[in-house]
Amino acid sequence: MRSDTEREEDPRLLERLRRDAARRIIAMKHDDLAGASDRPPARCRDRRVQPFASSSPWNVAIGSAAVYSHANLFLPPHPLPESFFNDHDYFFVASKTDPLVPVYGQGGWWRPATAATYCTLRKSSKVVAHLPFPRDVTCTAWGNNNAFALLMPDGETLVQSQPIYRCEAGGPLLFLADYIQGGACHNSSALCRNTSILSSGNESMW
After folding, report:
1. Scanning 7, 27, 58, 143, which has its CA 20 to 30 A from the CA of 50?
2. Nearest Cα residue to 169 out of 205, 133, 118
3. Can you give the pTM of this predicted structure?
4. Where are the beta strands (DSSP E) in 34-165?
5. What is the pLDDT of residues 152-196, one digit of tens each?
6. Which residues is 146 bridged to in the sheet?
7. Domain-embedded: residue 173
8. Which residues are paired to 92 by β-bridges?
9. 202 and 121: one domain?
10. Each residue of 53-90: pLDDT tens digit?
């Protein structure tokens, strides 16, 4: 019988051990590749459905330990409201084939809430930008906040403002244009500026 030292020094034994180890490594790699082919590819999120980063405040769940408290709305001595306000929010996706549409810096919350009130261009209204916009889309909820976000053809930039009106297909866009220049939105909210759909959603790009 050979000693351990003799077995370790036998070149034929060492060569056989090397070949066995190489075969085992090849077999392991083959198994890994076979397993990888069986796994479905990772699905990228649709940023139009799930915008902003997973760490965004818009994507943070309330949590199962949340405690709900009564808001005490409309309890005596406060009367019930005569009506409830319906707030419209719009999300548009522009493509490279959409026509460039003039943007008039005109918007507000006026009375009476009619087409004539909101669609008539005022003397002070000026074209402040051109944006790609779907030709057949209209926005005619007169008097509402009409906040909107427009995803630009680059698939990342969000242009946001309010209130938006488009009185007829192919017509100009009407909204408060100081927002598109990076100003704050209604009630001085800093969350309604032009931003990246891949960001946290609370910072301005421009």
Report:
1. 143
2. 133
3. 0.65
4. 89-93, 100-105, 127-132, 147-151, 157-161
5. 999 988 888 888 999 999 999 998 865 454 444 444 443 346 788
6. none
7. yes
8. 150
9. yes
10. 877 887 777 888 888 888 888 888 878 877 777 677 89
